Amino acid sequence: MKEIYLAGGCFWGVEHLMKQLDGVVDTTTGFANGNSDIIAPTYEEVYTDATGYAETVRVVYNPMVIGLDSLLGIFMIAIDPTSVNKQGEDEGTRYRTGIYYIDPSDLEIIQRKIDETAARYNRPIVVEVEPLRNFVAADERHQDYLDKNPGGYCHLSQELFDLARRLRK
Fold first, then answer.
1. What Å distances lie between residue 93 and 9, 117, 123, CA to CA?
2. Is the pTM of this model over 0.85?
3. Domain holding 129: CATH number?
4. Which helix (H) or strand (E) holds 97?
5. Eight-state DSSP code of residue 4
């Protein structure tokens, strides 16, 4: 199994999207790459934008079923990679986009996907690409949120979730 950390605005929708994909075996919502002294911030602390943490989803996947390139392809469709600190109606540094990796060999694939995405836009791509510095799981109320709250708020479209389900083998 491999893992990658994806920040794409509100983590509820990103988690729900990733869970639809064949080969994704686990997801965890949380906060990544913060720059504050708070080692284990709460949702309320991150919400202030004072911690530097981004709402992020830890994605554990089986690379024999879905490759990182395909996983990132879906992620890049889901986000606006040109928007700084804003996805949908959600604004603030906690909603920035990012790809945080733990395996340095993933960087080449990530950069290639960023370059492919950039070719489709007239504005700069602002997705952070960094090694994962830190990650703290969000509390239980934020795990599997859209499963527990069908019809709950999400900046991603139902059509995107449906597309991900259709991609299953």
1. 9, 22, 19
2. yes
3. 3.30.1060.10
4. strand 97-101
5. E
SS (H, E, C) 144-161: CHHHHCCCCCCCCCHHHH
| 154 catalytic residue (yes or no) | no
Q: What is the pLDDT of residues 105-116, one digit of tens each?
A: 999 999 999 999
Q: Rounded to 5 degrees, what are φ and ψ at 114? A: -60, -45
Stretch 5-30: mean pLDDT, rounded? 97
Say what percent of the chain tops pLDDT 90.
Answer: 88
Residues 6, 7, 10, 146: which is the catalytic one? 10
| Count of structural domains within the chain | 1
* Share in percent of the chain as helix, strand, coil (round to 5): 35, 25, 40
